[in-house]
Each structure stands twice: as structure tokens, then as C-alpha cells.
Amino acid sequence: MIAALLLLIPFLAATLLVVLRPTKHARSVALISSLATLVVVLMAWATYAGSPVVLADHDWVPAWGLRFVMGYDGVGLLMLILTAVVFPFIIGTKYGEKLQHPSLVNALLLYTQTFLLGVFMAQNALLFYIFYELTLIPVFFLLLYWGGERRRAITIRFFIYTLLGGLSLLFGIIYCMSQGPTMNSDFSALAALNLPIGVQHWLFWVLFLAFAIKLPIFPFHSWQPDTYTMAPMQGTMVLAAVMLKMGLYGVIKLVFPIVPDGVAFWRETVIALSLIGAVYGGIIAFRQWDLKRLIAYSSLSHVGLICAGLFAWNSYGITGSLYQAFAHSILVLCTLYLCSALKERVGSSEMGAMGGLKVRTPRLAALFLLVLLNAVALPLTQSFIGEWLMFLGLWQVHSWLAVVAVSTIVLGAIYMLYAYQRVMLGPDKWQLEMPDASNRDHLFLVTLIAITLILGVYPAPILDLVDPSVQLLLSSLP
Amino acid sequence: MVMTDLLAVLVPALPLAGAVLLSALRRKLSATVAGSIATALIAISFVATVILFSGFDTEAGGRTVRILDWLNITGMDIPLALRIDALSLTMMLIVTGVGALIHLYSIGYMHDDERAPTFFAQLNLFSFAMLMLVMGSNFLVTFIGWEGVGLCSYLLIGFWYTKPDYNYAARKAFVMNRIGDVGMVLAMALLFHFLGTLEYAAVMEQAHSIPAWGLLAITLLLFFGATGKSAQIPLFTWLPDAMAGPTPVSALIHAATMVTAGVFLVVRSSVLFDLVPYTRDVILWTGTATALLAATIGLFQNDIKKVLAYSTVSQLGYMFAALGMGAYSAAMFHVTTHAFFKALLFLAAGSVIHALGGEQDIRKMGGLKGSIKITFVTFFIGTIAISGLPLMSGFFSKDLILAHAFQHSPVAFGLLVFGAVLTTFYMFRLLFLVFYGTYRGKAHAHESPLTMTVPLMVLAVLSVVGGALNLPHLFGGHEPMKHFLESAAAAIRSEEIELSASTEWILMGITAVLVFTTIAFAYGRFVKRTTLEGDEADMPLLKRLIAQRWRVDELYAALFEKPYGWLSEHFHSIGELRIMVPLQNGVGEAALRVGNVVRKLQTGNASFHLLAMVAGIILFLVITLLSN
């Protein structure tokens, strides 16, 4: 029932938009659909008792090992919640950018949501793969038709790059199936494979490559800054707030259980790469001139830390990583929204065109500041919980990894405060007439900031959701 | 019992409520109303603290008030909880008591600022954070406050945000504090790694089970965190710049409370530090070096607030020197008296600045003792208190540190006495140049309103009698503060002066003679004839180096700031644009070439195939779903 609702609500609403092409109420339809999805997910959360839930279990194409198995555990439910929470904001954000064909944009967003929800419910590797690749298609069109400068070249590059990773993943899944007694690609069946260690060493990269690109971690990130900068605001939001979380989820569901020895062998390498990315992105972000590009590099930095925490491969690391994944989604929504609010007022997202805006827009400046608190992971914000747990997790792996990870808190402070100063503080250089934050800005940002603060003070709802599943995952590992 | 818990929660909750309320209503309230609300709230917190204090039984030890589960997962239980014991109560009294006076003062000082309500909201927020810092029952709750005060410090230093160098100063303060925070976070991670808990009580109980290298690392990292917040070498350069903030902020945050957080942290963890003599030596010499370095810089500064700022850095150095000698209660005593006289000095300086319409250069002051009498008298009292004139509060607290030093290390004693001489000199130079001689400026000086002078008078009284809080045996006292603090930190019990009474009298005599001689010298130099510092270019080399603050800022800029900017630009221009992007394009082109080959094998349109595939899958899905 829940699976059907979650797939059908956004899908039907999207199809409705495509067929009827309403120009006026497109966004309202999409918004209602996404809110309905949110209600369903919240109901699922309310009834979740702590043990994995199976929603559907049917054979589909048995010869291929493709079965329609849907369900979720705490981790999956967290991802569903994240997706459901984020989309109403993404759909509601459309900030002044005059997008052509609003009904199509909203339809593409809803299709993306459908497939994302599918990804996070699928309990069969092939089914997961299908949804995983399907998400790419609406996003592809979104970037190709509604993107900014150089959109064609950048979109195609992005598409090819992620598709390559996807193919590698597909090959890995098929290989795994061929090793089993029956052609069955259920997560549970693949987890029981016990592949030889030698195989696991190379298979790890075959499976992980897709997720390493999707996240992305260093050095697979070069598609990301351009794509984030060029994409329409909503596209960037989808990419950064939800799509990259598929990478984390994939690691937990496919990489950890299938190739545990491969993970044990490679995890310090992956952590090192992730942390290099975290430091590298954090340093680059400091001197970026375009706010959106700064957000892209700061996202690279944050995601590096999240991936490092995940590969700490212990209770604190994984829980912290997942917590931080949620925090990061909320954070990028806020920063990207601020970015578009500023672009709307100034006419550009370049910080050289800003400066001293606080004089004109004190409310917007105050909101920026509150978002900044989460960005630099001040205690009592969501990010602090995640970062603290990840630091502990990394410490258990190696003290020097923790030292590098902790040092990123300085980098974040450097580039975020510098950005805030360049945008908001100083004398009113340009003397532009501009409106202060509107009611809609407040509704959007204050709600998200409230989530940030509430989950920073009282993280129990998310921690209690994730913790048992993480314990279960760890206990099942050799 | 429930009543005391409620009071304990109320103490930080009131200023937090004030911060939220005032920022919500910041456009509707006048400066006076906002200031009154903020002051009233912190004053009620003070009253609550006094009630807690008077009902506190040192025999029973501390109480923990658990507010909320915070981080509670398998293997970890870190609650949001407060701890009421002798140490937190001492700090709470300072934070709310001195804090309330400074809030009151700000009503007058910020009267004409159109953003005064925001100012008071942030001042209240600071009080909340500072209270969390001192009241936390575990390291992580302290860290909430630790970062919170850092944030408020950032906001208030950059309060006048249209001035770029103020913003730079604010950013510098935050980033340097963050560098220290890395140490703090790592120390907490280590502690948790070894003990599985961060509760102070449990950590101190199990401290012995931590291996020696762990203790060494933890204490050094904690101290590194403390150097950031308390402006010690190497992380001290932010504090003088922090004077960009409104003067009450300098008094509250950058003199009386926040900068003593590092001292508090070491005392809070004194069990750990007692186990590692090596770290204590590091602290002793860092503190001593900071005390002297900052004192020398203070000699030639011309900005009234900058002199006081370097003086603060220097006095914090004394506190750390005391900590390094294991004299924890002596450090806390100096924290307390310093809170009185340095807050007083800053507020009085603010009153001078207020009187002269914003002038901060002491070369343009002089002869003000006639025109702003209350300010003069209170500043005078502050000056003799910090210089340690006999029977003033600073006399007792500084002498206690010096006596410990004498017993611990003659070298440290000599250096700290020399520092005391320097302190006396720069403080009396300040006093004489501002209030004596003839007026060298153009403004018409006028005395400040009552809201400003009343706090001055109260703090002046405290600066005089504050020594009674820990009156030594030599003067017929029983060191009440030391005995009070013993109940919170066992290490204090072993902290005894083992000098004979005559030795102590001689030590006091020596410092007293030195102080009076210095005053006489300063009198000759600045009152008999007014010696003003000329251009830096005309100074002899060493003096110029000192006047230029030993060029530490320039050193840090060359070592860290510039390379970091360079790194940021070149990671982008070379790492990204020259290496990563071409690499990625190569992969993409290779893939496209393969794709073209494949496409030639099939006839048709790739995107059509793609869409067909998607449509097929979707149809399949829908049918499957519906058929169930």
C-alpha cells in the first residue's frame, strides 16, 4: 500500500501535468502531490516499529533475477523521509527565474521523486539499478533544456560520466548474480554470497565507482562544480539534496554487505580520498567568486566528510554520516535558496556584485546568518551532531584521519564567513534598491532553519530511527 | 531539590529567552526598553544564582540537572545537563553579576545606536552561551557554550558591520578560535575513545585509567583549545583586534568572561592536568611568555582600548602561569578580581570615549580628571587595583600567584615580577596621559549618565574589596574562595603555599617597592612632562619592533593567510582547471568514441532508444503494481 502510494502519487501527478500542460497551476499540483507524499512517508514513520518492513514481494522477471521486492529499514526510511521533506521545498522554491513550460519542469521534478522513492524502497539489486538510472533521465532533461550557459556540453558530460559509473554497477550486479546458486538479485541473496577475497578486492571498485561518481568524492568530482553552477536552481537542489544521497544509500545496501572484505581492504583508501576532497574542496571554496560555485565546492567538502564517516564503517561513523546526510540536504536547500534570492535581487550570483546588502536587506542577512550556523556545524545545529559522531567514528579507524577530518571545521568557518562578509557586510557599495526577505522567503528558510535547530537540540527522532538498523548492519558483517 | 533544579535551568534560560524575544521584536523596541528587558533578565539570573549559591552545601558536592537526552545511541549517552558545584557557581556569579552591570551600562552607552535592540539580543545570547559553558555537566555541553560565545563574540566585534576592518577583525577572531576548537574537539574525541563518557564527574573519576600518552595528548589539546579562547601564544592576536566591538562588549566578553573560559576549562579538568606535569610546564611557560610579550606591547600603544586589550592578554598569561604551577584556585581568584577591575577599566574607558565623542587616541586626551570626575576616580581605582597596590583586590590575587611562582620556579617568579612592573608602568602611563596634564583634543568632555556611572561605582567598590573573597592567612583570612572551590576540584586541596610568613612579607615588600618606584617613574615621565610617542619610523629598532606588536600579525599573514589564499587560487586554477577538468573530458571523449562505434552498429537514434526503454520499464512497473 505504502509502496504503491509513494510511487503512484508523484508519478500520476507528473503524468497529469505532462498530459494537461496547465501553465497556471502546475506548481500547485506538484506541491500538493509532494505534500501528499510527505504525509504518506510521515505515516510510515509513525508506524515504523524498528524492524525492517517488507511492502511487496513478487517475482517479476525471474529469468533475469529481477524481482519486485520493496521495503525499508531505518536507513531506507530516513532516505524516504529526506526525499519527502525536501521535494515540497524544491518545488516551492522557483524563485523568479522565468522558466519556460512550468508544467514540464514540475513534471520532471515529480518523475525524479518517483524514481528516488523507488530507489530507496527497492530491496532487489536490479530493481534498485533500474530506479537508480531512471532518476537520471528527468534530471537530464531538466539540465539540458532549463540549464544556463554551456548547458549542452556540461549536461552531456555529466550524463556520460554518471552513466559510465552506472554501467559499472550493472556489470557488478550481474557478476554477483552469476556467482549465486540461483539468479536472484535480492539484497538479502547477494549479501549471503560470501565471495572470495580476491574477487572482492576488484569487485569493490566495480560496485563503488558508480557511487563515488554520484556523491561525488575526489577525484571523481570534476563533473560536479560545472553542473551545479549551470543547472537551474531546482536541478541543483535535486542533485545536491537528494540524488547524491543515493550514493550513500547504495554503499550501505550494496557495497558493505556484498564485498565486506573489499571494504576492509579499501576503506582507508576511500577515507583518505574523501578527506582529501573535503580539504581540497574546502580550500578552493574560499576564493570562489560565484556564490553558486562556492556552494558546489563546499558541498564537495561536506560530502567528502560524509563519505569518510560512512567508510569509518563503525556505529558512530555510519550513524553520523547518515545524520549528516540529512543535515546536508537541508543545508544545501537553504544555501541554494539564498543564492537564488540574492541573484534575483542583484541580477547575478557573483559576489563581486554584492557587498553591504545587509543595509538593504537586514532580514535576509539574518536568515543567511542562521543558515551559516548550520554550515559551520555550530553545536545545537543538526550538522554538529553528524560531524561529532563522524569524528568519533574516524578516530576509531585512525587518529590521524580524525585530525584531518576535524581540521575541516576551520576551513568551513573560513570560506563561509568570508562569503557572508562579501555578500552582506561592509558599506552599501552599489546603492541598489531591493526588497528585503518576503513572506515566502521566511516560510521557506525559517521552516528549514527550525528543522535544523530542532534536530540539533533533540536528535533522538533520527538517531532512534537509524541506530538499530546500523547495529543490525554491523552485526551482519563478518 | 526540584526548586533548585528549576532555578539552575532558569539561569541560562532567561537570557536565552531574552535573546529570542529581543531579536524578534528588534524593530519595535526602543533602545532603552530593549536594554531594560535584557538587563532585567540577566539580573534575575543573577538573583537565581545567588539563591543557588546561598543554598549550596559544599559538603554535599555538586548536583547534576539533566534537561534532555541529547546524543543517545548505542554506546553513547551524552545528555544536555547542567552541573551546579562550587566552580560553576563561582563562574555563574561572575557572568551574571558583572554581566548585569555591563548590560546596565550598555543602556546608556548604546542609547543612540539605532540597532541597540539587536545589540542587547546578542549580549543576552552571549550570556546564555557563557552560562552553558560554565554550567555544562559534560565536555560537550561546555562545547555548546564554547562555540556559542565564539559566535556572539564574532557578531559583536563586527556589530558595526559597514566597516570592513571591523568585519575582518570579527572573522579573524572566529577563525582563530576555531583553530583552537580543533584541539578541543580532538581532546573530547580522545576522552570519549578512552572512557566512553564525557561527564566531568565520571571523567575525573576514571582519569587514572587513561594511558600516559593519552593523558599527555588530551591535556595538550585541551590547552591548545584554551589558547584560542583565552588569547594565549600562539593564538592571541585576535584579541587586540577584537576591540573593534562596542566597549561594553570588550568589557564583558573580551575581559571579564569569555576569555577566561580557557582558565575555567583547565580548572574543570584539573584532575587530568594534575596527572601530567609536562603539560603543566608547557602551560606555565606559555602563560609567562604571553604575560611578558603582551605587557611589552602594552607599553607603547596609543589606543586606550588597545592598551587594555594587551593588558588583558597579559593578565590571562598570569592566570595560565598559575595553572601551570598547579595553583588552580589562585588562577580562579585572579579570574574573579580581574573580572572586577578589567571590566571597570574597560567601562571607564568607554565612558571616556563616550565623553569625547568617540576619540580613542590617548595622545588627543589629557587633563580629563576635572571634567569627568566619576570616570576619573573609578578608572584610578581600576588602575591601582590592576597594578597591585597593597590591599587592592589585584594585590592579593597577583601576590598569591607570585608566591606560588617563588616556590615553584625562581625564573618564573622573576619574569612575572618584571611583568608586574611593566603592568604598573603601562597602566599609569594610560592613567596619566588620559586624566592628567592638559587636554590635547578638541571635544567638549561631559560626564556619562547614571546608567553608566553606577556600574562603574559598583565595580570600583568590588575592585577595592574583592581581595576579601580569598583573604590569605597572613592578613587574618582563611582563603574562603580556595576552600569553597576545593569541593569542586580536589586538586586544589594540595595547593598550599609553604613559605614562612617572613618570606611572604619580604616578597610582598619587594613587589610593593617596585610598584611604587614604577609609579614614581611614570609620574615623572607623563605628568611632570608629557611624553608622547612619536612616529614609529623615528623609534629605535627594538622599540619600533615592540610598538609594532613584535610584528606577529605580519608573521602570521606571511606564514598562513597569504599561503592559504595562494593555495585556494591555485588548487582551483591548476588542480581543477588544468588537471581535473581535462582528465574528465578525456574520459568523456573516450566514452563518446566508443558510443559512436556502437551507434554505427545499430541504426537509429540513441535518445529514442533511451526513451523507449524508460517508457517500457514504467509501463511494466505500472502493470505489475496494478495487477497486485
Class from secondary-structure proportions of chain B:
mainly alpha
Major sheet of chain A: order of its strands? 1-2
**Strand line-up across the major sheet of chain B:** 1-2
Please give the most extensive interface between any two protein chains, plus how many residues each contributes: A-B, 72 and 68 residues
> In which range does the helix fraction of chain B lie?
over 70%
The tally of beta strands of chain B, per DSSP, is 2
**Major sheet of chain A:** 2 strands, antiparallel
Detailed description of the structure:
The complex is a heterodimer of chains A (478) and B (628). Chain A is 75% helix and 3% strand. With 478 residues, chain A is mainly alpha-helical. Chain A has a domain at 283-478. Chain A has a two-stranded antiparallel ribbon with strand order 1-2. In chain A, strand 1 and strand 2 (66-72) form a beta hairpin. Chain A is globular, with a radius of gyration of 21 Å. By secondary structure, chain B is mostly helical. Chain B is 72% helix and 3% strand. Chain B has helices at residues 2-24, 31-54, 86-109, 116-135, 139-157, 164-195, 200-206, 212-229, 238-241, 247-256, 261-268, 270-274, 277-299, 304-324, 328-355, 373-387, 393-408, 410-435, 450-465, 480-486, 501-528, 541-547, 552-601, 606-627, and strands at 63-73, 76-84. In chain B, a hairpin with a 2-residue loop joins strand 1 and strand 2 (76-84). In chain B, helix 3 runs antiparallel to helix 19 (450-465) and helix 5 (139-157) runs antiparallel to helix 10 (247-256). The longest helix of chain B is centred in the C-terminal third of the chain and has 50 residues, at 552-601. The N and C termini of chain B lie far apart (61 Å). The interface between A and B is large, with 72 and 68 residues.
